[in-house]
Amino acid sequence: MTSSGPAAVCIDWGTSSFRAYLVKADGTILERSESARGILTVARGEHEALLAGIIGGWLSGGALRIVMSGMIGSRQGWLEAPYAPCPAGLQEIGASMATIETRTLGAIGLVPGVSTFDRDGSPDVMRGEETQILGALAAMNRADGIFVLPGTHSKWARVEAGRITSFSTYMTGEVFAALKDHTILGRSMEAASEDNSAFAEGVRAAARLERPGDMLHAIFMTRTLGLFDRLRPGQLSDYLSGLLIGAELLSGAEGAQEAIVIGSPALTARYCAAGEVLGMTLQPSPEDCAPLGQLALLAHWRG
Question: What distance in Å separates the CA atoms of residue 44 and residue 282, rounded to the nearest whole number?
């Protein structure tokens, strides 16, 4: 194998999506494959055959190291990999990686995910985001910072000296979808307009919340602002989005004024816009952080 050739296959296998990358040792992506074959679409015993069908062509030139992260390592995935407790960096997470022995693909490294406890002693977990954070650290040549990973279950993580020391999960994306698609709020909504003023107003409404129950009241205002023509039907979903994202930022940042966003371009732009309304500076991370983190973890895998 030459230095310019592929070094590994990195796989991000989540609940609803599958992403595979053929990468060089420096993290350069040579080829990629994406599909909707998340773990919920794969029956027990079918993971190896499905994976071989997708990446088998990449292995025709010789054996490559394979590493997977995400919900594929959960109880609903291929093999449950126990979480690595915080504080956790490359050494701790890499040493906790599980190994899946396969007949057709050889040994596969499985990233374990990370766990923590909040100030009240309640547990919190992540699977997959840890590789993105580690990859962002490598890509940005830094060892510290606050990272936000927006999505169905958004994560806010604090990193010190290259190790994830704590994090919190917010069900922002899932709550937005549930409220929009399964409550009376959605009946008044139309396709979102390109006017960002309603989103900003939702963020400002989040900043005005004082008591825990105030959010439940503010959510209902999505309906009444439409009833009284304060917002047009095409603005209502943006208002609700701004309200939920704004509340997440205010809680997740814990007073910090800067954070790094790791996410899709659309979500990253929305979070950066919310941060601007709140006087926070949110910096987008480089793209494709997950395979960079997975490559770095391979050096610590005992498989």
Answer: 41
User: Residue 2: its pLDDT value, please?
Assistant: 46
Question: pLDDT tens for residues 49-81?
Answer: 999 999 999 998 778 999 999 999 999 999 999
Ranges under pLDDT 50 in the chain: 1-2
The two three-digit tokens of residue 31, written as one number = 């080829």
Q: Are 188 and 228 in contact (CB under 8 A)?
A: no
Q: Which residues contact 234 (CB under 8 A, 6 or more apart)?
A: 189, 190, 191, 192, 193, 195
- The closest of 41, 40, 20, 38 to 30, measured between CA atoms, is 20
Q: Residue 58: count other Cβ atoms within 10 Å of its Cβ.
A: 18
Q: Could you tell me the two tokens for 14? A: 């989540």
The identity of residue 181, as a single letter, is: D
pLDDT of residue 3: 60
Q: In order of start, what are the domains of the chain with their CATH numbers?
A: 8-140+294-298 (3.30.420.300), 170-284 (3.30.420.310)
Output the six-digit token pair for 17: 């999506």
Query: Which pTM value belongs to this model?
Result: 0.94
SS3 content of the chain, % helix, strand, coil (to 5): 40, 25, 35
- Distances 21 to 15, 95, 200, 289, 291 between C-alpha atoms, Å: 18, 23, 37, 11, 7
Output the pLDDT for position 253: 96
Distance CA 276, CA 279 (A): 5
- 3-class secondary-structure state, position 118: coil
Give me 152's structure tokens. 């169905």
Helices (H) and strands (E) in the chain, counts: 9, 14
Cα distances (Å, whole numbers) of residue 259 to 44, 87, 164: 39, 19, 14
